[in-house]
UniProtKB/TrEMBL annotation:
SUPFAM superfamilies: RNI-like (SSF52047). It holds the Pfam family LRRNT_2. Residues 50-105 form the Leucine-rich repeat-containing N-terminal plant-type domain. It is found in: Cell membrane. Residues 1-24 form the signal peptide. Keywords: Cell membrane, Glycoprotein, Leucine-rich repeat, Membrane, Receptor, Repeat, Signal, Transmembrane, Transmembrane helix. This is Receptor-like protein 7. It is a single-pass type I membrane protein. PROSITE patterns: LRR.
Length: 912
């Protein structure tokens, strides 16, 4: 339920409006307004009544001041705790009618309105609260007051005069009391953003049947957990209904869409299903939001005739069929249909959407060409057609002539983007902030980019651009570019002999998978994430990188760097979270790290020629998850001093000069998170570490259902703010006799490889506790004794290699229980007796394979409205979809562990 919030704090420079119905001025409804405006119109102030004055003062007494100046959940609602400062016995000469937020009846002087929105004040509340003595109240707004998880007091039922009640984001909890059904004068009720409130008994149906004058109802986050079967159909007053993320499920009755006065319907983030009905032409619907549900079938053709409709967001459903034909005169400003299964062409009638500002059709199965009519849509701010099967030539210059366009995303279609060669002929398009042309059949850098001075995001990855990056390209948005992705082309380097690249605000540079030669191109000080792996870069790693004080990710793997790892990299670990230098030609020792403030989570130095011992100061990197020193010439003993790091999941020391016995802890358990350990091809000796095997708790479970990849979750900039991005950990490991490369590592993949050492003695009993293991390799040691029958406990084993030891006795029958076993090697021992009926090799676990295929990392970034030159609202989501819909919200993914430093965040404004 809270899955979007953790990211929203990153949008500090964007004004956020989270409830779409209020995000566009054109769709907001007029409601009974409360408070001070009417005071201004009535100069002779009514006189406050004594009993009500003391009730107000008593109410104020109950509050404590908030700790933060913003509301929690990162909603960026600035609190105004001083609102009650004028509430003093002598304030306004004792006339409470002129206190802030208080409205009195002109004749009687009774308090009829209280607007205390957004004070953030804390208090628990119950029915004895003096608030309920204000029985003449008609409007009451306490939104963003913190009631410390109090239930809604039953005395609310005494305020029968209420027409407007707003208790949004009040930290209320429990069942909504039945007394609320007595407030039959209510025309607006907002109980949204109270995630601990429930509406079950009474039910939503009871509420709607009682409050027959209700025009506006918002229950976002309130736990309703029911179907809409009991939804009354005769709600003639209702004009705005928001039931976002309420745990609703089942079929939606078609009549809900066609309530006579309905203007705003928001059912986002539920599990509702069904088909959308045809709409009557007289429908007054202005905003329709059904994001992240299970709606299927075709879009009704009549939707194209709804002339009042302004916003339509049906993202993340299973809608099929064509995009409807839009009639001339439609008012739509926002049309979002991404992540559905729509087919057919982009209809030329999209050209009738003269008001459209944001058009998002990504992740569908759309075919055909981009209709030329799109270039008539002069209000268009954001256009995203990515991940479809659109084809044909796209004249980029023409789209860039849309003078309001800020975001243009055409990634991954079958499009061929072309540009005019004479850029002086193209009109200056100033506002574009984001241009994504990944996989658009580009053969060279389009010169028209030089015109796009405001560009902050540029993705030209997966094209066919070859040769050197021309000198002029470094002048593209020199002052503004933050994100540049040139990966997966055939680039050989940057032309010119610059000491550093020129982009002043570049924070994310991706040059992976090109043919870059020569020294490493050096970005300026702003860089945060730099990927240059899979190239042919050579020379030394410049120590100048150490002056890049914001850098968090440095990935230079799979190049031909020589020399040493600069000594100053030790200091860089204060900011550096990921350092990947594997598959280069680096030699000498590993730099010393400072004794504290190490941020490293991932260090991969695999396959170099590094020597010497491991720096003991690594033990101070308390957040380490992944360490790979494999395939070097490191000489040391087993690093048991890393055992206190509670997050370490992967430890690879393969093929080095490690030696000695594995010293185990005497009392406390160490390496509690370890799930992959590869010590193969070293000179370890002594007994197998029985105590460790007992301690490695994370190898006891195999939680296939959770299946996520291990790696970093981080933020990448988009023109609308930062979206979560992932960095998957990579490794090679021997699996079933073959060296295998893992571009991603599933979090339930568990491996012990101790092969090719000098371990001796028997296989310890505690091995049986490692029931999550997939691969176990003890081969090529000097182990003796029998093959223990308890190995039959390791039910998840896919490969068991005990070959080339001194094991004796029989092969235990219990091993035939290992149904996933595909590889079993006990050759080169002194075994005797019968061979048990060999375990039948099973096909690789089908479920896992499906998961790999269907795991899609998705993101959506949407402009909800566009006013006065700024994007005024953005909703960002990110999720992993697996075949199990219940894991869709895989919550651990929503906690980005770090984000772009505040200093580097910029406001992206349009030129409009
Ligand atoms: C209501 O709250 C007040 C103030 O917190 C407290 O003194 C009183 O005991 C509470 N009454 C009930 C019935 O809980
Ligand atoms: C609410 O109304 C009931 C019955 O009308 C009355 O007994 C009770 O005292 C009222 N409560 C308050 C707080 O005024
Ligand atoms: C309730 O108050 C909040 C905060 O001012 C506001 O955003 C919301 O629109 C209000 N709800 C209604 C229904 O007016
Ligand atoms: C759209 O409206 C026109 C006239 O207003 C009508 O002729 C046509 O049948 C309508 N189309 C749909 C699909 O409702
Ligand atoms: C480029 O376009 C401009 C403006 O249309 C024109 O004046 C100029 O001659 C063109 N240059 C070339 C080389 O075609
Ligand atoms: C790597 O660099 C070394 C020395 O500079 C050179 O001999 C070798 O050919 C290079 N390897 C590749 C694959 O470019
Ligand atoms: C690391 O930082 C410390 C303190 O800023 C400095 O004294 C030291 O010289 C630095 N070490 C290297 C190798 O840059
Ligand atoms: C470890 O395995 C042994 C033998 O199977 C068993 O007796 C013991 O309870 C297991 N310990 C844990 C902590 O599972």
């Amino acid at each position: 339920m809270e899955r979007y919030w953790p990211h929203l704090f990153m949008f500090s420079n964007l004004l956020l409006t989270l409830l779409p119905s209020s995000s566009s001025s054109s769709s907001s409804l007029s409601i009974a307004s409360s408070g001070s405006s009417s005071l201004l119109q009535q100069p002779p102030q009514p006189k406050c009544r004594e009993d009500e004055r003391s009730a107000l003062l008593e109410f104020k007494q109950s509050f404590r001041y908030p700790i933060d100046s913003y509301y929690s959940y990162g909603l960026e609602v600035k609190l105004e705790p001083w609102k009650l400062d004028s509430w003093k016995p002598d304030g306004g000469h004792g006339n409470c009618c002129i206190w802030d937020g208080v409205e009195c009846d002109a004749k009687s002087g009774h308090v009829i309105g209280l607007d205390l929105c957004c004070t953030g004040l804390h208090a628990s509340i119950n029915s004895s609260s003096s608030l309920f003595r204000l029985v003449h109240l008609r409007t009451l707004n306490l939104a963003y007051t913190n009631f410390d998880q109090s239930p809604i007091p039953f005395a609310i039922g005494n305020l029968t005069g209420l027409t407007y009640l707003n208790l949004s984001a009040c930290e209320l909890s429990g069942q909504i009391p039945k007394w609320i059904l007595g407030l039959t004068n209510l025309s607006s009720l907002d109980l949204s953003l109270n995630s601990k409130l429930e509406l079950m008994r009474p039910s939503l149906g009871d509420l709607l049947r009682s409050l027959t004058n209700l025009e506006e109802l918002d229950l976002t986050w309130v736990n309703i957990s029911s179907s809409l079967i009991d939804f009354p159909t005769n709600l003639s007053s209702l004009s705005s209904l928001t039931l976002r993320d309420c745990g609703l499920h089942g079929h939606v009755p078609g009549s809900l869409f066609t309530l006579p006065n309905l203007q705003v319907l928001n059912l986002d983030d539920n599990s509702l299903s069904g088909h959308m009905p045809e709409f009557h032409w007289s429908s007054r619907l202005k905003s329709l939001f059904l994001v992240e549900n299970d709606f299927s079938g075709e879009l009704p053709a009549s939707i194209g005739n709804l002339t009042q409709l302004i916003e339509l967001d049906l993202s993340f459903n299973r809608l099929q069929g064509p995009i409807p034909i839009f009639a001339d005169g439609t008012q739509l400003t926002t049309l979002f249909l991404p992540f559905n299964q729509l087919t057919g062409c982009l209809p030329s009638s999209l050209g009738n959407l003269f008001q459209i500002q944001s058009l998002q059709l990504s992740y569908n199965h759309l075919t055909g060409q981009i209709p030329p009519q799109l270039s008539n849509l002069s209000h268009l701010v954001s256009l995203d057609l990515s991940f479809n099967m659109l084809s044909g030539l796209v004249q980029l210059d023409t789209l860039l002539e849309l003078s309001n366009l800020m975001v243009l995303v055409l990634d991954f279609n079958n499009l061929s983007v072309i540009t005019k060669s004479n850029i002086t002929a193209s009109r200056h398009s100033t506002g574009l902030a984001q241009l994504n042309l990944a996989s658009c059949n580009l053969h060279s850098f389009p010169r028209v980019l030089l015109k796009l001075e405001k560009l902050s995001i540029l993705d030209l990855s997966s094209n066919k651009i070859h040769g050197e990056v021309p000198m002029w390209f470094q002048d593209v948005a020199r002052e503004n570019l933050m994100y540049l992705n040139l990966s997966c082309n055939s680039l050989t380097g940057f032309s010119g002999n610059l000491a550093a690249l020129r982009w002043k605000k570049l924070i994310h540079l991706d040059l992976r998978f090109n043919m870059m030669r020569g020294p490493l191109p050096l970005p300026l000080e702003s860089i945060v994430m730099y990927h240059a792996s899979n190239n042919r870069l050579s020379g030394v790693i410049p120590s100048l990188l150490c002056s890049r004080r914001f850098i968090q990710v440095l990935n230079l793997a799979k190049n031909n760097f020589t020399g040493v790892i600069p000594e100053c990299f030790g200091n860089l670990t204060k900011t550096l979270s990921i350092l990947s230098l594997h598959n280069n030609n680096l030699h000498s020792g590993i730099p010393r790290l400072p004794d504290k403030n190490c941020s490293l989570r991932m260090l991969d130095l695999n396959n170099n020629q590094l020597e010497g011992p491991l720096p003991r100061s690594l033990a101070s990197c308390a957040a380490l998850e992944f360490l790979n020193f494999g395939d070097n010439a490191i000489e040391d003993t087993f690093p048991s001093w890393l055992g206190a790091i509670t997050t370490l999941m992967v430890l690879i020391l393969r093929s080095n000069r490690f030696h000695g016995a594995m010293v185990e802890p005497t009392d406390n358990c160490e390496f509690p998170a370890l799930q992959i350990i590869d010590l193969s091809r070293n000179n370890f000796k002594g007994r197998l570490p029985a105590k460790y095997f007992q301690c490695w708790k994370s190898m006891r479970v195999s939680n296939v259902e959770e299946g996520e990849y291990i790696g970093e979750y981080m933020d990448s900039p988009t023109a609308l703010g930062y979206v979560p991005d992932t960095y998957d950990y990579y490794m090679t490991i021997m699996n079933k006799g073959m060296e295998m490369e893992y571009a991603k590592i599933l979090d339930y993949f568990q491996v012990i490889d101790f092969s090719s050492n000098n371990f001796s003695g028997e296989i310890p009993m505690s091995t049986a506790n490692l029931t999550g293991l997939r691969l176990l390799n003890f081969s090529n040691n000097i182990l003796s004794g029998p093959i223990p029958s308890f190995l039959g406990n390791l039910m998840n084993l896919e490969a068991l290699d005990l070959s080339k030891n001194r094991l004796s006795g029989e092969i235990p029958q219990q091993l035939t229980q290992l149904t996933f076993l595909e590889f079993f090697n006990v050759s080169g021992n002194n075994l005797s007796g019968l061979i048990p009926q060999a375990p039948t090799p099973s096909t690789p676990n089908q479920k896992e394979r499906d998961r790999d295929a269907s795991t899609i990392i998705e993101w959506k970034a949407v402009v909800m409205g566009y006013v006065g030159g700024f994007v005024i609202a953005a909703v960002i989501g990110h999720k992993i979809i697996t075949e199990n819909p219940d894991t869709r919200s895989a919550s651990s993914l929503f906690h980005a562990r770090w984000s772009i430093p505040k200093e580097l965040q910029v406001t992206i404004s349009s030129a409009a």
